[in-house]
Amino acid sequence: MTKKKKKQSVIPGFSMSMGLTLSYLTLIVLAPLSMLFIRAAGLNVSEIKHILLSERTLSAFALSFGASLIAALINCIFGFIVAWVLVRYTFPGKVFFDAFVDLPFALPTAVAGISLTSLYMTSGWIGRYFHILGIKVAYTRIGIIVALTFIGLPFVVRTLQPVLSDMDKQAEEAAVSLGASRWKTFIHVILPEISPALLTGFALALARAIGEYGSVVFISGNMPNRTEIVPLLIMTRLEEYDYSGATVIAAFMLIVSFLLLLMINLLQGWGQRFQEAEKL
Amino acid sequence: MGIEISGVSKSFGKFVALNNVHLNIQAGELIALLGPSGSGKTTLLRIIAGLESADAGEIRLFNEDTMNKKVKDRMVGFVFQHYALFRHMTVFDNIAFGLRVRPRRTRPAKTEIRDKVFSLLRLVQLEHFSDHYPAQLSGGQRQRIALARALAVEPKVLLLDEPFGALDAKVRKELRRWLRRLHDEIHVTTVFVTHDQEEALEVADRLVIMNNGGIEQIGTPEDVYHNPVNPFVFNFLGDVNLFRCRMENGVPQIIGHGSEATDSTMSVVPEASQVYVRPHLFDVSLLPNGSTRIKGTIMHINPAGPTVKLELVSEWNERIDVNITQEKYQSLKLNTNMTVFLKPIQMHSFREP
What we know:
Chain A is mostly helical. In chain A, about 75% of the residues lie in helices and about 0% in strands.
């Protein structure tokens, strides 16, 4: 989305702004994070291996990343639908619905966790219907996904909305007049247009879900090896005064998250290759 | 019959975009829908395509009712003013789109699609641009690609919505001649919308002049230009000067000038109280000579262009636009603030409602 390789910038002062950016990022992001690695580096390889490859750590990682990915995917689908409805249609109360979308941002995550738990308990308003179907939501992995979906929704909706409202409606009409079905129009015309924004929303929702702690601890039940997420595992280690264990897990989590986000960014660049062509 | 439009009406809220429109278009014709913005021409085009639905009335394409036909099954090619190309696809993929989205059993083979795309690229003279993205093309090239894309599905009807509206004057002119030649080559029934009367007069077999959601006149360019049925059409097809007049023995007397137009070629309705004169249909002289003379003072002269444009003010403070040839301008040695005398060569008047 940013324009690269500009010969003459309207706003001068590249060196100054770049310097500021670097020092700011170092101070706010890199310095605290590097502390993690410095601490973790105090351990030898076999100790690190022992911490990371323990069953409890591995299952926490699998759960954290798996549930976050699923939640982010669910958010992509339903976030798209919500954004589409909010952009394309007018209906009474639209302003309110639009405002509702941001609530997961504003709500303290603990509050979200507690209310979701009481809703999805086997005796809760929603949970009792799942219970009839034989599905337990609260205190299971499904509950974790529900909580992570809840907190990630605004990211997808808010990144898609401006793109959808800017989108050329005539391209859709052109596709339909050329004989494309709705589904094919969506796959070949709409999706490529919105995929960069969708990926951004996905990445943000994913990152938020991986780091989420407050709401999940209430709904997950926190059973080691079963419903324990990585942030909680780190907290547990800290409470046990096992600082090196906590930092190793945290550092590893950071690396995996970074690689995931980097991959998404690269994918995004590939999705926008046609926009690069515009600058030739 | 190509397109039969009968009794089509459409409103958007309180705004009546089309009011009981009837129009028949022959197969293979090139028709221009001409009118000012808000006249309903684009709405009519979109209704033919199925992109908009009519509130009342019926559209038949090649003797088939379109009532329950979806856009994708109507076999119409639609070209938009702003091209509406798929910007994430190459030129090749854009043109191939309509063929590739067909259901498997009617979809042509890959090589067939390839041949078709390249033959269309040759038709629009852009063979070398197949792997470019739309953003790398100029406006005129983009519109030709959009046209090729629409033609790829071999539509029975080609609909163009102000196809040259976003292009600059020179390219517009080039492209509209090219469109005319293309139509002579492929003969697909074509309807195009424009607000540019020059474009419509030059390209179309027949013009449909629209105003306020209705049709004012239908006819060949020659017909509508020389025999406009009402002041709106006359006014819309070129600049005009309006004079109030009084009839005396079937001869209009332009009020305020005591002048008559006995020797003018006229298409004047007996009871008319207004006559219209085109700017280039005046005889200009420095001295009053004969009967019909309108006295005017030159306020402004614009000698740039094929004709010299004069802006005059009559004794009665009416503005009169006059166009004369460069030769005439040279021989009369005209200057601003000079007084000249005008004799209408041709006057038009219309039956008043």
